[in-house]
Design goal:
Naphthalene 1,2-dioxygenase Alpha Subunit, Chain A, domain 1; 7-stranded antiparallel β-sheet; 4-stranded antiparallel β-sheet; metal-binding; 2 iron, 2 sulfur cluster binding; Aromatic ring-hydroxylating oxygenase subunit alpha; oxidoreductase; dioxygenase activity; 2 domains; alpha+beta; Rieske Iron-sulfur Protein
Length: 422
């Protein structure tokens, strides 16, 4: 089987189309998909420029005038809480000479004032002041350029396309009952960490979408996970254990759904424009949370929850996020591409807004599992990125038992590229 490597690839439009057309189902991608800047630019245009991108949580913009900014492949988007309580989003670019309106990641404003020449916009994005422009200047034609913004129970998504994928509303309708009991809007961010990984964003997603690597690489994370929770190859030596795991999953799902907590798997990772998947799975040992002890990290539970052992609700979205909801805290992850070989992975831990640090929770206990896991994943992604630059690299096969979600991501990715380039 032939292979196109980063050393031989010439990034013409025809070659890129050929690579896309020749992608072999069940195998990872040719090297240029991970290393070439021309394909990276296509990813930014076709994937991050046209789909719903997860950017943060509503507690970051809790009050009127609060804002957050996020960099998405060289674009800066500004999300702000309007006076009426709704969310608005704009390109973070002044309509005068293009200066960034807000350089900080977070802040609070009355109006949006450009630091260069003081052009001033209200929270609707309307230009309300522009000095020295003369009587013939029409301010109404120079408002901020809007960006689509929607929230699913406190998870904020933006879309920079002119026409955003319409299926997001259906996704929100499906997911809201799963997420709502955890009351994310009534949480606060207890910790936030950005990791810069020297790897392509797709390698970060591939790594996230499988747990084939978990047992040898994630000793902290696997303390709370059942061995068969994320894929397994059946054999004569594990038949009874697998059947027992299936029984635990079914029994737990029935009990949780009886409590008003939707739990059963929904998987649309590769058959929708806005791909997603969700499932609530039991945790092992104490079964309360993704911590080293498997007990809750925060004594004050989320929302109106009264039981600690509610497993872990996972929610994945294409192309850039995954989230874990437990009884006591929430962990959210976003992928923000920087270049063909560099990606920011942002992790945020949320607890009940009334939880008191040092009394109800300890930040180290809350974050230690995923801080360790993220660093381990960073190393795995970076070693894979280095391998992709080798002349000896050739796409290898996915495990049908443990890497099925990776294949679904790849099918979605290739499908979305084809939808743009034809």
């Amino acid at each position: 089987m032939s292979s196109t490597t980063a050393l031989t690839f010439q990034p013409t439009p025809g070659k890129i189309r050929e690579l896309i057309a020749n992608r072999r189902p069940g195998y990872c991608l040719d090297a240029p998909f991970y290393t070439d800047e021309a394909i990276y630019k296509l990813d930014i245009e076709a994937i991050f420029g046209k789909h719903w991108i997860y950017v943060g949580v509503e507690p970051e913009v809790a009050e009127a005038g609060d804002f957050l900014t996020v960099e998405i492949g060289g674009e800066s988007v500004l999300v702000v809480r309007h006076d009426d309580g709704s969310l608005r989003a704009f390109h973070n670019v002044c309509r005068h000479r293009g200066a960034r309106l807000c350089e900080e990641k977070h802040g609070s404003v009355g109006n949006l004032v450009c630091p260069y020449h003081a052009w001033t916009y209200n929270l609707d994005g309307e230009l309300v002041h522009a000095g020295h422009m003369g009587s013939g200047f029409d301010a109404s034609k120079h408002g901020l350029k809007p960006v689509h913004v929607k929230s699913i129970e406190g998870l904020i998504f933006v879309c920079m396309a002119k026409d955003a994928p319409a299926d997001f509303d259906e996704l929100a309708k499906i997911m809201s009952p799963y997420i709502a009991p955890h009351r994310l809007k009534d949480c606060k961010i207890a910790a936030s960490v950005d990791i810069v990984e020297q790897g392509n964003w797709k390698l970060v997603v591939e790594n996230n979408r499988e747990c084939y690597h978990c047992v040898p690489n994630h000793p902290e994370l696997t303390i709370s996970l059942f061995e068969f929770g994320f894929g397994y190859a059946p054999g004569s030596n594990n038949t009874e254990a697998i059947e027992e795991f299936k029984r635990i999953v079914e029994t737990s799902a029935c009990r949780w759904e009886g409590m008003g907590l939707p739990s059963r798997e929904i998987d649309h990772l590769d058959d929708r424009t806005t791909g997603f998947r969700t499932q609530r799975l039991p945790l092992t040992q104490a079964g309360e949370s993704q911590t080293m002890s498997t007990e809750v990290a925060c004594k004050k539970l989320l929302g109106d929850l009264t039981e600690r052992a509610l497993g872990g609700l996972s929610f994945w979205t294409q192309p850039n996020s995954w989230h874990h909801f437990m009884s006591d805290h929430i962990v959210t992850f976003s992928i923000l591409p920087v270049s063909a070989g560099k990606t920011i992975v942002r992790t945020q831990w949320l607890v009940h807004k009334d939880a008191v640090e040092g009394v109800d929770y300890d930040v180290n206990t809350l974050t230690e599992v995923w801080r360790a896991t993220n660093d381990q994943d960073r190393k795995l992604v970076e070693m894979t990125q280095r391998g992709a630059t080798s002349s000896g690299y050739e796409p290898g096969p996915y495990s049908e038992y443990t890497e099925g979600l990776v294949e679904k991501f790849m099918r979605w990715y290739i499908g979305r590229l084809n939808a743009v380039i034809g």
